[in-house]
Amino acid sequence: MRPNIDISHTLNGRVKDYAKRQDMALDKAYREIIEAGLEAVEHPDES
């Protein structure tokens, strides 16, 4: 099940800006950012 969370306008704007810079759809940008964040918290010593 996917969580239904509130995302601030500022954070959403940052993701939109990222998607635009990378020339990708917003949903793909969210997916990429979430996956990168999960990787970072699951493996904090690997940078």
From TrEMBL:
Entry superkingdom: Archaea
Name the UniProt record assigns to this protein: Uncharacterized protein
